[in-house]
Write a structure and sequence with these properties.
single chain
Length: 74
Amino acid sequence: MMQPQHQLDVKNLSIAERILLVEDIWDSIAAEHESLEITKAQRDELDHRFEAYQASPTLGTSWEDVKAKLRAER
């Protein structure tokens, strides 16, 4: 596997910055592929989490709030 030249730069980023980088990478992948296949186990986990959310929608933190917190930590 080829190692990117910028790998050392990534290690110098804060955890919040690395999470945002991963998010940007994921968004770029999703933009290129209309549908990403997932396994049955992944689908089952998503269904389980959605059912838990429907049972208690006020528990947890929204993705927008998590992103805002990570960006504020930069």
